[in-house]
Design brief:
- The chain is α/β, with parallel strands linked by helices.
- It has ten helices and eleven strands.
- Strands 1-11-8-7-5-6 form a six-stranded parallel β-sheet. It has a three-stranded parallel β-sheet with strand order 3-2-4, sandwiched between helices. A two-stranded antiparallel ribbon has the order 9-10.
- Helix 1 packs parallel to helix 10, helix 6 crosses helix 7 and helix 6 crosses helix 10.
């Protein structure tokens, strides 16, 4: 079996165009849209990610605010910068690029963000809204995964979804989104300490893998014809690989996301979507 490739690049292009049109509509009301990033230190991977976010924001017609601090910055300096951006009425969405350098508390930094400007959807207020099924920004990566499933018309209602991973970035919010009314999947959350993880994963119609181990999931984890979403991005001697052994699993799965080019582009697209939605709420248009 040759699995259908679920291209995040393709779906992200659709989302970015939708965002561009919404930004243009706001401009027609005299309202700009601004995305700010906070980068602390000089981690090369983080710099690449931040550049990608600013490039996408600019292409969508947004104002882009790139704020950097040295790795020697104190917690207070980081939080003071975030508060300055909170007070800037040109900034509608904000992200703090994680992880922060050693000695800094990323959770405290995220909690300093004004919840109305939470582009990543990771503020406790945003996660609480997700749990309560109330409107608000959704965590960017899980929201992007849901959009991929919708775009490719992957049936979720009545299906069994297994999520490997329990982080607040992906695993836990993913469970909530998949089990929400209207999506209606039955969801099992697993992790590295789950007994017979491969056996449980083989039951899944939809398998979401976010465990942070290169090529961890092989063909023996996958039910024939299942949809496999690989969230992992691992740097190895052979380049970027996911948490899924792509070549082996593609022979078994019905559909699969590649790495790179799968979930990654959707995370940025979701950041833009959260930002323009914040601007629309601020302008009283929704």
């Amino acid at each position: 079996m040759s699995a259908q490739v679920l291209s995040g690049k393709e779906v992200a292009a659709v989302v970015r165009e939708e965002v561009r049109q919404r930004v243009a509509a706001l401009a027609g009301h005299g309202r700009s849209v601004g995305l700010a990033t906070v980068l602390v230190g000089e981690d090369a991977a983080s710099q690449v990610y931040v550049r990608g976010k600013h490039k996408a924001a600019t292409a969508a017609g947004m104002l882009s605010y790139d704020r950097t601090l040295p790795a020697t910055a104190s917690q207070d300096e980081v939080e003071d910068l975030i508060r300055d951006l909170n007070a800037n009425d040109k900034v509608d969405g904000m992200i703090v690029q994680l992880p922060l350098p050693d000695g800094l508390d990323g959770n405290r930094a995220v909690e300093t963000i004004d919840p109305d400007k939470d582009a990543d959807g990771l503020h406790p207020d945003s996660l609480g809204r997700l749990v309560l099924d109330r409107p608000g920004p959704r965590p960017a990566t899980p929201a992007g995964i849901m959009r991929v499933l919708q775009h490719y018309e992957i049936e979720t209602s009545g299906k069994l979804a297994v999520v490997i991973g329990r982080s607040f970035l992906v695993g836990r919010p993913m469970v909530l989104l998949l089990s929400a009314k209207g999506v209606d999947a039955t969801v099992i959350q697993t992790h590295s300490r789950t007994p017979d993880l491969a056996g449980m994963s083989r039951e899944a119609d939809i398998l979401i893998v976010a465990i942070g181990r290169p090529n961890f999931v092989g063909a023996d984890f996958v039910k024939p014809g299942a949809t496999v979403i690989d969230v992992g991005i691992n740097r190895t001697e052979n380049g970027l690989v996911g948490d899924v052994d792509y070549d082996a699993v593609a022979d078994v799965a019905g559909a699969i996301t590649p790495v790179p080019g799968g979930v990654g582009p959707m995370t940025i697209a979701s950041l833009l979507e959260n930002t323009v939605a914040a601007a629309e709420r601020s302008a009283g248009l929704v």
